[in-house]
Amino acid sequence: MLGIHQDIQEKVLEEIDTVFGDSNREVTLEDLPKLVYLEQVIKETLRMWPPAAIILRNIDEDVKLSNCILPAGCTAALAAYALHMDEKIYPNPKKFDPSRFTPENIASRHKYSFLPFSGGPRSCIGSKYAMLSMKTTLSSFLRRYRVYSTCKIEDIRLELGLLMMSVDGYPVQIKERIPIVM
């Protein structure tokens, strides 16, 4: 997404430069909460392309939903991708907009309107670790490189399985931003 949206990448780079300056030091746990905009970009990417597009749950006891009952013993499927593309929750859902994940905007939505790692007591136990890892990896990478792509969001074809994946991959160019000092 950063390769497609150079303006957003520029904002991420400014934030990274503010946190790290021109040092080549390692990323620390104390740095990660300061990368607020980067986290918004990651969350918006996960909204548009959740790793698990469908979440399955076994129903232990009858559940009443409006005028239908899901009987105990059945399997319910929640389409996280469809939820994340619901215009009532995310206006203009196909537009990449990290501001959807500002604290104010998050507070205005239901807590289960964003489910890249599922939700509730059976959500992914690694979700916090995944976010820390993504922020660490991206901030380390983007301190040295810039990403470019001629791809357009509307050209990305998806294949839905247990995981959602691109059919054609993601063509990008990577260019050195800052020479690495050893």
Structure description:
Belongs to the cytochrome P450 family. InterPro entries: Cyt_P450, Cyt_P450_CS, Cyt_P450_E_grp-IV, Cyt_P450_sf, Cytochrome_P450_Monoox. It is globular and about 60 Å long. The chain has helices spanning 6-20, 36-48, 80-84, 103-107, 127-144, and strands at 54-58, 63-65, 68-70, 75-79, 145-148, 158-160, 164-166, 173-176. With 182 residues, the protein is an alpha+beta fold. The chain has five helices and eight strands, in the order ααββββαααββββ. Helix content is 31%, strand content 16%. Strands 1-4 form a two-stranded antiparallel sheet. A two-stranded antiparallel sheet has the order 2-3. It has a two-stranded antiparallel sheet with strand order 5-8. It has one domain: Cytochrome p450 (Orthogonal Bundle). It starts with 5 loop residues before the first helix and ends in a 6-residue tail after the last strand.
Features:
182 residues; alpha+beta; Cytochrome p450; two-stranded antiparallel sheet; 8 strands; globular; metal-binding
What is the string of helix and strand elements? HHEEEEHHHEEEE
Query: By CATH's scheme, which homologous superfamily applies?
Result: Cytochrome P450
Total of domains: 1
**Fraction of helical residues:** 25-40%
Question: Judging from the principal axes of the Cα atoms, what is the shape?
Answer: globular
Proportion of strand residues = 15-25%
CATH class assignment? Mainly Alpha
Q: What is the arithmetic mean of pLDDT? A: 91
**CATH domain topology:** Cytochrome p450
> Which architecture name does CATH use?
Orthogonal Bundle
Cofactor: heme
InterPro entries: Cyt_P450, Cyt_P450_CS, Cyt_P450_E_grp-IV, Cyt_P450_sf, Cytochrome_P450_Monoox
Family: Belongs to the cytochrome P450 family.
Membrane topology: Peripheral membrane protein
